[in-house]
Amino acid sequence: MIKDRRLILGIAPVLFAVFPLVLWAQETLEKATFRIKYIAQDVVYIDAGRSAGLKEGQELLVEHTAVPAVQNSTVPLLQPPSGIVAHLQVISVAASSAVCEIKSSTEPVAVGDLVRFAPEAVKEQKEEVRLTGGRSYPQVITFTSGDPAVE
Length: 151
Prior knowledge:
Layout: H1 2-31, E1 33-40, E2 43-46, E3 59-63, E4 67-69, E5 77-79, E6 84-93, E7 98-105, E8 114-117, H2 119-132
Antiparallel strand pairs: 1-2, 1-8, 2-7, 3-6, 3-8, 4-5, 6-7
């Protein structure tokens, strides 16, 4: 009985530390939006990178930004985004920017368009956080006899 209580008291701080991290990662990826900052032929540059959770090979979606609608009064109304207009694939990632290839598009993309994670990327990230607890650890490799790089 006492061992069970000690085990529960020992595990509780770990659960309280990991559980909010998992929830935070799920919410931030689903709500994260970025902007296209430059377009060159079949690639776009976006204003988010590794620090925002982007990885090479991830799929992203593009939506046009809200456009002011013309109205009789002096206050313009904002029309909602017109839906997904392009699919991107991340091909290169820096700390705060990324280069993406335009895989398909129904309309031309424009500077300032919204970019967000595809549902598949969010699902993969959720699974990764669930398995690792959201932490990454360095790996150390040691050799017991000789050095393979020298041999």
